[in-house]
UniProtKB/TrEMBL annotation:
This is GTPase. Pfam families: GTP_EFTU. PANTHER family: ATP/GTP-BINDING PROTEIN-RELATED, GLIDING MOTILITY PROTEIN MGLA. Residues 2-131 form the Tr-type G domain. One of its GO terms (molecular function) is GTP binding. Coiled coil: none annotated. The lineage of its organism: Bacteria, Bacillati, Cyanobacteriota, Cyanophyceae, Nostocales. InterPro entries: Gliding_Motility_GTPase (IPR052705), P-loop_NTPase (IPR027417), T_Tr_GTP-bd_dom (IPR000795).
Length: 184
């Protein structure tokens, strides 16, 4: 059986843990702790190491989903998780433009660390103040449509929406030139 490792990353409150919980076939392993900083204004708990979920993608392929913490002070964990990944999705809250620079720093960090396929998943697009896909792409540093990664809209609490995002990520991975070998 082949194992494909996918990382779900993004700024605090983008929906990473919810994304993994919505699709995992096992009880998600998480490292949630009581939020004590400005994060407490957004949510009660926050991830401090990683989330882990599993999804049987086909009879001979299983996906391992790793969610990163959103705080930059935990970037040493980003490196650990992304180094063994085959691809990743960057979740971005479309209604929180004050977090776009954080999302951009996360993507920059990941892209400097490894060269693997990635897509952008826009969350909270139905909330007041949500920016357009085009404006978010520009804010993240992807002004050129020819060189930007695929962008999908995803509702992290809806398993069908999460499944579509994962399918888009796997398709992007398989269409990328010379994909990494998937190992057991």
């Amino acid at each position: 059986m082949e194992i494909m490792r996918l990382v779900v990353t993004g700024h605090v409150g983008a929906g990473k843990s919810t994304f993994i919980r919505s699709i995992s076939e096992i009880e998600v392993v998480d490292t949630d702790c009581q939020a004590t900083d400005q994060t407490a204004l957004l949510k009660e708990k926050t991830t401090v190491a990683f989330d882990f979920g599993k999804l049987q993608f086909s009879p001979d392929m299983v996906l391992h989903l790793y969610g990163t913490p959103g705080h930059e002070r935990f970037n040493f964990l980003w490196k650990i998780l992304i180094n063994k990944a085959h691809a990743y999705i960057l979740l971005v809250s479309a209604n929180r433009p004050e977090e776009f620079s954080s999302a951009r720093r996360i993507a920059d960090y990941m892209n400097r660390t490894v060269q693997i396929p990635m897509i952008i998943g826009l969350t909270h697009v139905d909330c007041p103040g949500a920016w357009s896909e085009e404006n978010i792409a520009i804010a993240l540093g992807y002004a050129s449509k020819q060189t930007r990664p695929p962008i999908v809209t995803v509702s992290p609490n809806q398993s069908a929406s999460v499944a579509q995002a994962i399918i888009a990520l796997v398709q992007h991975y398989t269409q990328s030139s010379l994909p990494q070998e998937i190992t057991v």
